[in-house]
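Q: what sequence does this backbone want?
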């Protein structure tokens, strides 16, 4: 009985953090400073009343993680007033685990049986939303949309390893 239920080892990794800072972008070089990476930020819209960050629940309802109407296009030749790091992207939570047993077969011969489970809770962790707010002078249709997840669905793998 000891050979069957003894000597199991369990490992686990829990990763949790709040979202990373995100910076909404104008999508063009409105300031005219010649930077080809187009890092110009928009202005806060003074007429906007409501939540800027709609969150994952808001994304599920509206298709936007943040409300692009909270921003306005800066005048040509000027910089926007949205500070870098003023907004935060989606939270992240993940649990991975492994269970394995080493089985002695002979003096210098062992077998290891492993079960590994990635994303045990099958929790969807959403990627950074689309940060380009404007397409020309209009709000881009994809502004604030989340296109992907950062983790895959739950995955389970089994392994048998011979050690000699």
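A:
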């Amino acid at each position: 009985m000891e050979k069957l239920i003894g000597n199991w080892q369990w490992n686990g990794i829990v990763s949790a953090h709040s979202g990373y800072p995100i910076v909404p972008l104008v999508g063009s070089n409105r300031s005219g400073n010649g930077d080809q990476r187009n890092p110009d930020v928009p202005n806060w819209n003074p007429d906007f009343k409501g939540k800027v960050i709609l969150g994952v629940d808001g994304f599920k309802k509206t298709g936007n993680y943040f409300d692009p109407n909270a921003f306005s296009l800066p005048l040509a030749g000027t910089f926007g007033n949205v500070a870098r790091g003023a907004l935060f992207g989606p939270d992240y939570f993940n649990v991975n685990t492994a269970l394995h047993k080493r089985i002695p077969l002979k003096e210098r011969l062992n077998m290891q049986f492993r079960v590994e489970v990635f994303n045990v809770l099958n929790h969807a962790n959403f990627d950074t939303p689309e940060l380009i707010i404007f397409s020309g002078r209009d709000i881009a249709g994809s502004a604030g949309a989340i296109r992907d997840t950062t983790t895959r669905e739950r995955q389970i793998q089994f392994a048998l390893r011979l050690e000699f």
